[in-house]
Amino acid sequence: MRQAEIYYKGEKAGLLTQNDNGGFIYQYLDLWMSDNGKPPISLTLLKTKQVYKSDYLFPFFYNMLPEGTNKQVVCKHMRIDNDDYFSLLLITARYDTIGAVTVKKIQANI
User: Fold this and answer.
1) Please, how many CA atoms are within 13 Å of residue 57, restricted to the half-sphere of its CB?
2) Is residue 108 scored above 90 in pLDDT?
3) Least packed by Cβ within 10 Å: which of 24, 44, 65, 77?
4) Model confidence over 2-50: pLDDT tens digits?
5) Which three-class secondary structure state does DSSP give residue 6?
């Protein structure tokens, strides 16, 4: 299992999880949900207590990934598989994204 914190304009909004079976879960944090002034991070991931589940990376996050030559360069330089979308998201969406959402890896406690 791998996890990432999802930030909206620098504030922690939710948690993205990739399960061991490859499926994904997105859930808003209770603190984000309790503030009516906080928006959803995406029109496809509406602000709700519902846990979103998917067999593949949610389109909102997938669309944050580089494509083509940029993707190939990042994958080669960072030594990740071209099909490892979660790792690619963690690497490319940490600091500087086009939108208000950033993604930060949660380190596993071993």
Assistant:
1) 17
2) no
3) 77
4) 999 999 999 999 999 999 999 999 999 999 999 999 999 999 999 999 9
5) strand
Which amino acid, one-letter code, is at 67? E
- The pairing of strands 52-54 and 2-8 is unpaired
> How far apart, in whole angstroms, are the C-alpha atoms of residue 40 and residue 102?
14
For residue 5, give the 3-state DSSP assignment. Answer: strand
Residue 42 is given by DSSP the state B
- Please name the residues in contact with 53: beta carbons below 8 A apart, sequence gap of 6 or more: 23, 24, 25
C-alpha–C-alpha distance, residues 34 and 38, integer Å: 9
Gap between the Cα atoms of 41 and 14, Å rounded: 9
The residues spanned by each domain of the chain are: 2-106
The mean pLDDT value of the chain amounts to 92
CA dist 35 and 86 (Å) reads 28
Looking at residue 110, what is its pLDDT? 55
**pLDDT score of 94:** 86
